[in-house]
Amino acid sequence: MSQKADETGMMKAILAKGDAPLEWCDVPKPVPKAKEVLIKVAAAGLNRADILQRKGMYPPPEGASDIMGLEVSGYVEAVGSDVENWRVGQQVCALLPAGGYAEYAIAHQGSVMPIPDGVSLHEAALLPEAVMTVWANVFDMAVLHPGETLFVQGGASGIGTTAIQMATALGAKVYVTAGSDEKCKACIELGAEGAFNYKTTDFEEELKAVGGADVVLDMVGGDYLPKHINASKFGARILHIAVQGGLKAEVNLLKVMMKRLTITGSTLRGRNDLDKMHLADMAVKEVWPWVASGQLRPVVDSSFAMKDAEKAHERLTSGLHVGKIVLTL
Amino acid sequence: MSQKADETGMMKAILAKGDAPLEWCDVPKPVPKAKEVLIKVAAAGLNRADILQRKGMYPPPEGASDIMGLEVSGYVEAVGSDVENWRVGQQVCALLPAGGYAEYAIAHQGSVMPIPDGVSLHEAALLPEAVMTVWANVFDMAVLHPGETLFVQGGASGIGTTAIQMATALGAKVYVTAGSDEKCKACIELGAEGAFNYKTTDFEEELKAVGGADVVLDMVGGDYLPKHINASKFGARILHIAVQGGLKAEVNLLKVMMKRLTITGSTLRGRNDLDKMHLADMAVKEVWPWVASGQLRPVVDSSFAMKDAEKAHERLTSGLHVGKIVLTL
């Protein structure tokens, strides 16, 4: 397949085309610019943002590919003229602005990372987006400290399973929500101190009962923010990385003042190359050792051949998954 | 009068008694505990919090006096057994948890500051609350940088006039709102780059037209927060120090994420002694030189004899004032 791609300058890839089923199409093989690395893809990670992108709700940054996919692992196939740290044939994983569901993908050199010890090449495709999102928000923006309490909505998600392990490795206590007792159990096994089934319990009361949160990592928004404010400790930081439950939220500003709360949020895709380089550096220096020591492992829910991405998306949309879904070539 | 107070162990002071007119009553003269300083009051500053306290909306911290008043200047009258840095007879100003509308007031030693060069003893009573509030929020929490843009609601208030001058001294650009063209003019004279009359213009559009804000200092809350979010630059910090326009505000969390905004707030009264000591240190080290050089001067709207505090409160409630109102003995 890659032989053919090389010869014709074409490759197979999956484009974001609204609600139409995902197709394994022929598209031009990309050519790396001066600071870019061309990766021969071995595996790509699925993200909820991919679902949003199909719905037109999370467009790629200007100039980025229409091919879906925010993270891959594989082999360096070619490098741009200004690339110094990567050479052809190296095994790498990378965060991408787009373009991961493909035989070949382009990454900015600063978003490329070596494969950490302790994981397979395929598993490594599941690390960049979650690790960098958790680092950017929980570690950089909220400055979670050892001994503090992190509360994560959606503990069984790709972000959730990663946040549980990274915060536990730091020495923080983690409480999470999940949508079934089985998922709650999986979160506890990953290191969570407690897991609240949001379908059968009131997470606000449960969180208050264990003393409240210093940091909240939320993908829901909407009605959840007032609950997070109520169940936060003095000085807490509440971080939003998605708004699956609604964009608009009501805030009691007097509570924000009296408890000196910080309400913030960010996207990973909107960060510039320098920001992403910093996050990749932090991942390699601070997080890869946790992978090597077994404190952080990517939780693989399921694996699909890349051309069957439609089935993989169905699995992600079902909400039945625990951890991440991988597409392989 | 103080002679009499010494002899009888009594003094004159004004208590917060709901809507009843403020009275110059006889109360016991306080005695400093180990880490406290007793100040013979020369002047006390008025704050909007005093009005709220009369309405029962801003109660003093537990254990604090029922006497009104959050800041004074005067002479050290006596010191507690553990006080090392202050001696009887020194001219000082201080932030108080309560107790400033009185002949004698108690301050924690860490909240006492020397009178800066360049102001009178009476004027110095108007510095602690505003300087420490602006430092805590704009400088410590929001980390305003030189070259950034600060937007202040209520530029003609005590906090506003102080924020304009402190941020300008730092090298930031300041835009403000005020309720009359005359007040807008006063703000420009203090160093503001622009002042928007919120009764005749749309401050959101005005602020957008000048490029938006990096830091917003707000005492209004309510409907203003969505406007501040819209007129904020990427990475902006929005700080709430009062909620004169309503406790509840609607937040678009997607905008918070996409613009990586921080929404936070604090009260000065709720800070512990260590926090206040830090703020007093910062005031003396970083802000007093600006007073000495003439870059920051307390804007005195009007002066009343302390026993006429009721009239002073009427002036504050009228909203006609520019800067601060002082009570003198």
SSE order of chain A in H/E notation? HEEEHEEEEHHEHEHEHEHEEHEHEHE
CATH superfamily of the largest domain in chain A: Medium-chain alcohol dehydrogenases, catalytic domain
Quick one: biggest sheet of chain A? 7 strands, mixed
For the secondary structure, the number of strands of chain A is 16
Helical stretch count of chain A? 11
Overall number of structural domains of chain A: 2
Assign the CATH topology of the largest domain in chain A: Quinone Oxidoreductase, Chain A, domain 1
Please report the distance between the alpha carbons of the first and last residues of chain A: 10 Å
Shape of chain A: globular
Classify the oligomer. homodimer
Helix content of chain A: 25-40%
Give the averaged pLDDT of chain A, no decimals: 95
At the first level of CATH, what is the class of the largest domain in chain A?
Answer: Alpha Beta
Enumerate the spans of chain A where pLDDT stays under 50 for 5 or more consecutive residues. 1-5
Structural class determined from secondary elements of chain A: alpha/beta
State the largest interface: A-B, 27 and 27 residues
CATH architecture of the largest domain in chain A: Alpha-Beta Complex
The fraction of residues in strands of chain A falls at: 25-35%
User: What value does the Rg of chain A take, in angstroms?
Assistant: 20 Å
SSE blueprint:
2 copies of one chain form a homodimer.
Chain A: H1 2-8, E1 10-13, E2 25-28, E3 36-45, H2 48-54, E4 71-79, E5 91-95, E6 104-108, E7 112-114, H3 121-124, H4 128-141, E8 149-152, H5 158-170, E9 173-178, H6 181-189, E10 194-197, H7 203-209, E11 213-218, H8 224-230, E12 232-240, E13 248-252, H9 253-258, E14 262-265, H10 273-292, E15 300-305, H11 309-318, E16 324-328
